[in-house]
Write a structure and sequence with these properties.
- The protein has 138 residues and is α+β, with helices and mostly antiparallel strands.
- It has one domain.
- The protein contains 2 helices and 10 strands.
- Strands 3-2-1-9-10 form a 5-stranded antiparallel β-sheet, with no helix packed on it.
- The radius of gyration is 24 Å and the shape is elongated.
């Protein structure tokens, strides 16, 4: 092979490698689940929790009492049985569990949230908005 042909092939390989580098998808620190947009207003009541689905939910209002400090699973379509959270996760864009404490609310993201654990202080009859990224202002 001539020297000019070698240079041409070498230059072509460099150009191709450069193009491949620019077209590779960027890596992300996001969870492997795709985040699904939702907005929910959480209210702590005297004996339970009220939720208002503002965006990305098939439900508008949920209210429930929590017994024995057992978390309640919440999905895109409403309340899910805690024991069947894996099944609910398959059918829903998002899934988290919620529990009421003396001082506030504790949530655990199982699917479609950027957070795995989210907790905040909330007095009775007070509200806090959340979305797939965490706590938000409305």
């Amino acid at each position: 092979m001539k020297t000019s042909t070698k240079r041409y092939i070498f230059a072509l390989v460099i150009v191709l490698l450069t193009q491949v580098n620019y077209t590779l998808p960027a890596q992300s620190n996001q969870p492997t689940d795709e985040l699904q947009g939702f907005k929910i207003l959480v209210e702590k009541t005297a004996d339970g929790i009220k939720l208002q689905g503002i965006e990305g939910c098939s439900w508008t209002d949920l209210a429930f009492n929590l017994n024995n400090d057992r978390p309640q699973a919440i999905a895109e379509y409403g309340m899910a049985d805690f024991e069947e959270t894996k099944k609910a996760s398959v059918d829903s864009d998002f899934l988290f569990t919620i529990i009421r404490t003396e001082k506030g609310i504790v949530l655990k993201g199982h699917k479609g949230t950027a957070w795995t654990d989210l907790s905040f202080t909330l007095s009775n009859n007070s509200t806090q908005a959340i979305n797939e990224m965490g706590m938000i202002d409305l």
